[in-house]
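Field reference: sequence -> structure
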Amino acid sequence: GKKLTVHFQTGLISGDTAHSITSEPLVIDGVPYAGDQTGETTACTPSGPRSVHFEYPAGQAEDPRTGPRVGFGESVILVGQGFCATKPELGGSRIAVKLDDGRFSRRPGEEVHSNATIWQIIDVISADGSFRVPITLPKKGDVAGGSSPAFTEGAHTLRLLTGSIKEGDVAGSIKTTPFTVGTYAPSGEA
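Structure field:
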């Protein structure tokens, strides 16, 4: 009864044309998938090209070398625009968010997707493809809410992937600028 689809994607290497297709849900152990949540899909027309940036906490100066500074288990606020599916009637994108290109996985039993390296999923519901969401980071150490391997102090990035977890979505990949966990400072910074 769980949703399982097969997704084919091209265009991941230089010179290859980007195409994406996902099968209808497969029948597992004789129990068909009951369907996605029902409800109206908001038509989505992007207000501009896809882009993302971090919102800095109040009182924290913007620094492109370190990005926002946060603690273990805290959230960074991610703001994006232009995340619509291929046709307006399909609504907004469904975005898979990975930490450091999938270096950190959710702990067993705490997954948000069958791919444990997907740290969070963002469902864009606005009419223009914009969003503002908190991304809760792993806690420190081998604890509930932590990661495998254990999340580290220092500079990190998020990778936003579209086109593989929603049929009709635009295939894409965007890497954010860095954000910093803890007191880490880049070389040469005092």
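Note: The longest strand covers residues 75-81.
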